[in-house]
Design brief:
heterotrimer; A mainly alpha; B mainly alpha; C alpha/beta; A: mainly alpha; MetI-like fold; flat; C: alpha/beta; Rossmann fold; 2 domains; four-stranded antiparallel beta sheet
Amino acid sequence: MDEKLELTPDLFEKIPESEKNAERITFESKTYLADVWSRFKDNKLALAGLIFLILVIIFAIIVPMVSPYTYESQDPSIPHALPSLAHPFGTDKFGRDIMVRIAYGARISLSVGVAAAFINLCVGMVYGGIAGFCGGKVDMVMMRIVDVMYSVPDTLYTILIMVKLGANIQSILIGICIASWMGMARQVRAQVMTLKEQEFCLAATVIGASNARILFKHLIINSMGPIIVSVTMMVPSAIYTEAFLSFIGIGISRPAASWGTLANDARALIQSYPIEVIWPIAAICLTMLSLNFIGDGLGNALDPKKK
Amino acid sequence: MFKYTVKRALFGALTLFILATITFFLMKSIPGNPFNGDKKLSPQQLAQLNEKYHLDKPVGEQYVLYLKGLLQGDLGISIARKKNVGDIIFKCAPVTMRLGMVAFCIAIVVGITLGTISALSKKKWVSYFITFFTTLGVSVPSFLLALLLLMLFGVWLRWLPIVGLQTPKHYIMPATAIALYPISMIAKLTRSSMGEVMKQDYMVLAKSKGSSSISVIVKHGLRNALLPVVTYAGPMLAFLFSGSFVVETLFSVPGIGSEFVKSINGRDYSMIMGCTIFLGFLIITLNIITDLVSALVDPRIKLGK
Amino acid sequence: MSVLDVKNLHTKFYTEQGDVQAVRGASFRLEKKEVLGIVGESGSGKSQTMFSVMGLLSANGRVAEGEIYLNGENISPLAFKSHRDYEKKMESIRGNSMAMIFQDPMTFLNPVLKIGTQLMEPILNHTNLSKKEAKQRAIELMEKVGIPSPEKRINQYPFEFSGGMRQRIIIAMALACNPQVIIADEPTTALDVTIQAQVLELISNLKDEIDSSIIMITHDLGVVASICDRIAIMYGGKIVETGTDREIFYEPKHPYTIGLLSCVHNPEEEKKDLKPIPGTPPDLLNPPKGCPFVDRCEHAMRICKLQMPEEKSFSETHQCSCWLNSMPEGGASND
C-alpha cells in the first residue's frame, strides 16, 4: 500500500475465476479427542496433577511388594523412629514402617475413591437413564424422590449407615454411594433429555448411515463430557469422606489403615512426634489436590467455552 | 410468594419426616439393648428402665411414640448422659452457630473478594495464583487443616490458644479451618460468574451511559455475578454447621459437632438420632431461606408457579 | 465544522490466532443534523468502527492509528497521555454528547435492575438533577418514546417488557441528555418486521426534535433508504464508497455497492432475480494487500490484488475507491 506501482495496462487485465480464492478455510480442525488432549496438556497444573497421581499409584503398588515389612509387622525395639534408610518415613508407636502403611493406605483410599465413583456412575446411569428415557410421570416421581434425598446432607446419611453397618470398606462404599448417587442421577437425566432432543434433529436432517454413526458417536462423547468430569470429581470427594469417617473413628478398622485412620492415630502425637502426623496429611492433601487439578483440567478441556 | 413459601415448608417437613424415619429404623435395627452391657443392673431394674424408655414395646409403637415426641419438640433421652437430648442440643447449638457464623462471614467476604480480583485482574499470575489457592482450598479437608494449624500455631509457635472459644483470638484457628473450603468454593463461583457477566452486553450499555468502570462493575456486574453465590450460601452454611464436627472436637469446642462425634463413638443412639434430626432441620430450613432470598435478589425467578 | 470527523481509523483485536485488523483506515465525517448510514455485511468492521469512536472496544481491542474529532477535539485514545485520562474524558462524553443505541434489546438491558434505575443512570451521571427530578425526567423520556403508563412501568424489570418496548427504553437512554451524536448499531435487526418500522420512525422523529446527528449502522439498505441523508459503504475494514442516498442508489460506482443493491428486492421489477454476491468476506487476520473485495468481484483485475485503489471523487459528496474508476486510457479490461 505504501509504495505505488506504476500503472501499466497489463495490470488492468481481468483475473480468471480460478485465481480467486473466495471460499477458503482459515483454520485447520483437529479430531475431538486430540483437541481435548492438547487442551489438557496445555494446562500445566492438570498435567502435574496427572503425573503426581501416577506416581502415587506406582508407589501404592510397588512399595508393599518390595518392602521387607508388612503393614502390621511390629518391631517394639524401634517405636517412633525418625526417618532412616531402613524406614524412609520412620516408624509408629508399635515400630511399624510408616512408608508401607502409607502405601497400604493409598491402596485403600484410592480404591475407595475409584470404586465409589464407579458405583455412583452405574447407579446414576441406571436411575437417571430410566427417568430421562421414560419421561412424563415416571420421570416426575423418580426425580421428586431424588429431590427429597438430596435435601438431606450426605454426611448425615453416611454416618448413620456407618454406625449401622460397622466399620469396614464395604459399608464405607455403601454409605458413600447411598449418600451421593442423587447428583449423578440428576446429571445423567439432564444429558439424556438433551440427547433425546438432538435425536429429533438427527432424524429431521436425514443423513447417510455412516454420517449418522459418526454424529451419534460425537453426541455421546459430547454428552459424556460433563459426566466424566463429575465422576473424576467424585473420586476426591469419596477419598475425603473415607478419610473423614476414619478420622472420627468409624471408618476402616484397625490394624488395617487408610490415610484417615493413620491421621487419626497420629493426631495425639502432634506435640511429641509431629513428623508422623505430616505423612498422612500430606498424602491426603496432595492426592486430593492433584485429583482436583485433573478434574478442573478435564472440565476445561472437554468444554473449552467454560473457563 | 406466600404460596411458594408454604409449599417449600411442606416439602421440607416431608423431607424431615423421611429423615426421622430412616434414622429411627436404622438405629433400632442395630441389635442389642443400651442397658444390656450394664452388669450392675438387676433384671427388675432393667425391666423398669425398658418400660420407662418404651423399649419393651414393639418397634412400630416405639416409632409412633417417637414421632409424637418429635412433634412436641421432645428428642428423647440420652441414655449414656442420662439427660434430655433436646437440652444438650440447645446448650451446644449456639456455640456451633456462633463459630459457623464467624466462618460464614469470613468465607463470604474473602471468597467474593478473591473471586472478583481473579476475574478482573489483567495480570495473568494473579488469577493463576488464585486458581491454585482455591483448588488447594477445596482439596485440604477441614479437619486436616485444623490439625496442621493446631500443630503450627498452637504447639510450635504458641501464638494462638488451642482449647475452647473464650476470646476472639480463640476463633481464629477453628474458623479458618472451617472457612477455607467455602472460601474457595465462593471464590471459584464468583470468578466464573463474574467472568461471564463481564462479557455481557448490558455491561457495554452501562459503560456507554458514561458511568465509570468501577461503578459499572459494582452496580451492574457484582449484582448479577453474586446470584449463584446467594444460591450457594444456604448449602454452605449447612456445610459450615455440619462440617465442623471434627474441628470442634480438635479444638475442644463444646458445640453440636463435638457432641455428635462423641455420641457416635459412644454409640449413644438417641443422641445420634437427636443430632441428625436437628442438623437435618437446620439444613432444610437454611435451604428454604436461600431459595426465598435468591428469589428476592433475582426478579426473574417467579415463585408463584 | 463537522460534528464528528474520523480520519484513517485503524482498530486491531489481539487474539490467540493473531491480530485481527477489524478496521483498516476508515475515514468519514458527520455533519450537523445529518443521518449517515454505514452499510456493510457482518464482519465488515462497521460496528467496531463505532465502538472505537465510543471507546467501548472489548478488552483485547485497541485503536492502533487514526484521529477522531468530536466538535474539533481529538478524542482518539492515542491523543491521551494515559488510559486513565482517556477514560475520564470519555466518561464525560458517553451518554452525554455522544450516545449509542444497541442492537439487541434482549441482552443489552441489565436483567436485575429496574427500568427506572437504568434509565436514570445517564441523567444522574451528566446532570445535577436530584434523584427525584431524574425520575421525573425518566418518565418524560419514556412518554416521549411511546411507552404507555410510564409512572407504573418505571418500576418494572426488563423481563416484563416486550422486545420492541425494550428497544424504546434503550433509545430513551440514548436520548436522555440530548446528545449531539447518536450512534445506532443495527437498532432494528433483532426486532419483528412490524416493530422495525415503528422504531425507525421513532428515531427519525426524535432526531428532528432534539437536533442531533445520527450514524445508522445497518446491513439493510431498506433501512438506509428510509431515513439516511448520506451513505457510506464499508467492506473488509475499509470504506469503499460514500455518497448521498440518491448517488448511492442511482449511480453506484463500486462493484460491491452494485452487488448489495442487486440483493435488494425491488417490487417494481418483479421478474428480476435477486443476485447474491458469491463468496465470503476477507480474512482480517491476514488482510489482502490490495482491494479487499477482489476475490468476490466479477471485474477483478491484476492490480486489484496488488494495491488498494485511491479514493476518487465524482461529486462533492460522492467518493469511491475502485480501480475500475481509475483505468488508464485504453484499459485492457475485457468485459
